[in-house]
Write a structure and sequence with these properties.
The protein is of the alpha+beta class. The chain has helices at residues 39-50, 81-90, and strands spanning 2-7, 16-24, 27-34, 53-54, 57-62, 67-72, 76-77, 92-93, 102-104, 114-116. The strands form 3 sheets. The chain has a 5-stranded mixed β-sheet. The model has no long low-confidence stretch (mean pLDDT 93).
Length: 120
């Protein structure tokens, strides 16, 4: 059994979480979570220990040379971040762009889109 400590990022309280893990078949299995003041902390710890994911924000350059702020529509698996950034760097779009427009579909093979966060 292994013990990990995390700080919850779900709200401004920043609860200090203690997570007890068991590695089974090469995967983390959460045994218990303590230190959280709400269910979101427990959910965060479980997710972070079993399948960590992150929102990715960056910019894409348009054919006109303008930087367009973009983000993933949902969090992507943490191990796909560098692949996502590589695809975003090579993406090119034409203006005009509107908030929510899909810039790259299925970024890094995640079935999640990279979308514009500003209209230009």
């Amino acid at each position: 059994m292994e013990k990990k400590e995390l700080i919850c990022i779900c709200c401004p309280m920043g609860c200090h979480l203690q997570v007890q893990l068991q590695v089974k078949d090469g995967k983390n299995e959460v045994i218990s979570v303590s230190g959280n003041t709400c269910k979101r902390g427990s959910d965060y710890a479980f997710s972070e220990m079993t399948a960590p994911s992150r929102m990715v924000t960056t910019t894409v350059v348009s054919e006109e040379g303008v930087s367009i702020p973009v983000k993933t529509a949902m969090p992507i698996p943490k191990e796909k971040i560098f692949e996502c950034m590589k695809e975003a760097k090579s993406a090119r779009v034409s203006l005009p762009i509107h908030v929510g427009d899909v810039i790259v579909k299925n970024i890094a093979g995640t079935d999640i889109s990279l979308i514009a966060t500003r209209s230009l």
